[in-house]
Each structure stands twice: as C-alpha cells, then as structure tokens.
Design a protein that fits this description.
The protein is an all-alpha fold. Helices cover 54% and strands 0% of the residues. It has one domain: Non-ribosomal Peptide Synthetase Peptidyl Carrier Protein, Chain A.
C-alpha cells in the first residue's frame, strides 16, 4: 500500500466516506462532521502510520485533506 493510499484510508476510516469524496473541497468548512475529535483521530493515525510527531501548530492546521498532505510532506513523507 502506498503512502497516499494509507493517507486516504485515514479519511475513509475517520469520516466513513469513499475515497472519491476526498479532494480539495474536503475540509473543515465543508464537512459538517469535521470536529476536534475527528481532527485528532486523523493526526493520531498519521503519527502512528508514518512514525512522525507533529507540532501543535501542525495539529491545529490539519483542517483539510490538502493541508494534511502538505503537513505530512513537510515531515519528509512522500505522498
């Protein structure tokens, strides 16, 4: 499984959506279910899967599918 597939799995698991729902519009503003618990679940899955530790600033900024990809990439993980 590629890193991108693993990343996509975080969202499908946490939000219960199909992979094709993910994209630039999948963000805190457009997904009513997106709350702090869901956001922390995404962060936890990312940290565990990719063996990284995100800074508090990154955790707070993890508010969209695209921003999450950027944050993960900044940790040296190729998606």
């Amino acid at each position: 499984m590629t890193n991108l597939e693993q990343y996509n799995n975080f969202f499908t698991e946490v939000f219960g959506v199909a992979t094709d729902a993910l994209g630039a519009d999948f963000c805190k503003e457009n997904v009513p279910e997106w709350d702090s618990v869901h956001q922390l679940n995404l962060v936890s899955l990312a940290e565990d899967t990719f063996d990284i530790m995100l800074d508090p600033e990154d955790i707070m900024a993890f508010t969209s599918y695209e921003k999450g990809k950027e944050i993960i990439a900044n940790q040296g993980i190729e998606l």
